[in-house]
Amino acid sequence: MAYVRKDVGTLTPSERRRFVNALLELKRRGEYDEFVRMHVDFYTPDGETGLRTAHMSPSFLPWHRRFVLELERALRRVDSSVTVPYWDWTRDRTTTSVPWTLDLLGGNGRRSDRRVTTGPFSYGAGHWTLKEGVTDATYLTRDLGRAADPIQLPTRSELQWALDDPVYDVRPWDSTVTRGFRNKLEGWGRGSGSASWHNHNRVHRWVGGAMLGGASVNDPVFWLHHAFLDLQWQRWQRAHPEHRYLPAEPPGPADDQYHRVVGRHEKLPPWDETPDQLEDLSGIYRYA
Question: Does the N-terminal peptide bond of residue 13 adopt cis geometry, omega within 30 degrees of 0?
């Protein structure tokens, strides 16, 4: 029977405590840092050579669907009642709303160095030392809303702009495409500054600190953000049932994207599943 992923704002005090405690236990065991390392390893920009699976490619959504599920399975081995909640950033939009509460993820970083000093994931609490990343930082940082150059979280209409596109993705299957649901949701745009970041990408920049770059998994809000994105993929699938993951077949030898993009029936590293197999996981979980 499928279990339920809930809106983080609806969790009971007990559910909040169990979710936090399960994360802290994974961190204590060293398992959590393996997830950080994996995301860093698979963060391959389209300006580099080689296969892209996690970002700037059609497999952004199935890759992260599988990634969140892997973390959720680890949490449920600690506490079988736990599921990954989602953060609806079109509704909970302030620096003091959920999930930025003392009993969940803690609050913003302090002004001097953006270090998070409140909540269970603060460095001072002693349970969340950063060990994997692209910098030498050992403590969690945040810059909610980016005080020096403020930005806003995506709105409901900006999210709907992505959901309304009936095509999953288009050539050349990278960060430059301006059509297709995948990149409108992932959020690579043209130009510079805030105007070039949409939906998923802008949320990462709004949180700031550790959420910038390949080691963004160091901030537990990563999972709540990506659970919400996974829900949007489900909503897109229901709205456009005649459309599926593209490309159906991988680009051929004459294509610039040859061996750089995963086709619908190809294995999605580092797992054995294909995007086709990951299009419907309703037998495992559902969203409240």
Answer: no
